[in-house]
Amino acid sequence: MTWNDLTWIRDNWSGNLIIKGILDSDDAKEAVKLGADAIVVSNHGGRQLDSAPATATVLPEIVATVNQQCKVIVDGGIRSGIDVVKALALGADACMLGRAWAYALAAQGEQGVNQLLNIFENEMRVAMALTGVTKIGDISQDVIVKT
């Protein structure tokens, strides 16, 4: 798959175009130029290339590069509600859940997924309360401690 293939898709598809696997700002620029409605910052769970950077490491630069020209979704490394808060604080518009959801489903089916989502929600509420945030839309880089 190349950018030319995605150009062909964009030219022939008027629906939303979401491009997954963005890990650097140059690719983010190309996706925006192509007319992507959203990009997914993803290292595919680290399964494709062992030395791929963590999504949280590259997320802030990609968010700055995109500059609200499309939505930024993060996929990879989201194992708790606190991870969701961190990703939102780093600029993500949304998060995807892969392994956590699959494990919950495998362990307890629909009930397991509901329990997982409740746990994530509770963890997010605690993290938000401890950082003085009352609305998800107010989560910002201010809640991250920089060392």
Task: Provide a descriptive summary of the structure in words.
The chain is an alpha/beta fold and 147 residues long. The chain has helices at residues 3-12, 25-34, 55-66, 81-89, 99-130, and strands at 18-22, 38-42, 71-75, 94-96. It has a four-stranded parallel beta sheet with strand order 1-2-3-4, covered by helices on one side. Helix 2 links the parallel strand 1 and strand 2 (38-42). Helix 2 crosses helix 3 and helix 4 (81-89) packs across helix 5 (99-130). The protein is globular and about 45 Å long. The model has no long low-confidence stretch (mean pLDDT 93).
What's this entry about, in short?
This protein is an alpha/beta fold and 147 residues long. It has helices at 3-12, 25-34, 55-66, 81-89, 99-130, and strands at residues 18-22, 38-42, 71-75, 94-96. It has 5 helices and 4 strands, in the order αβαβαβαβα.
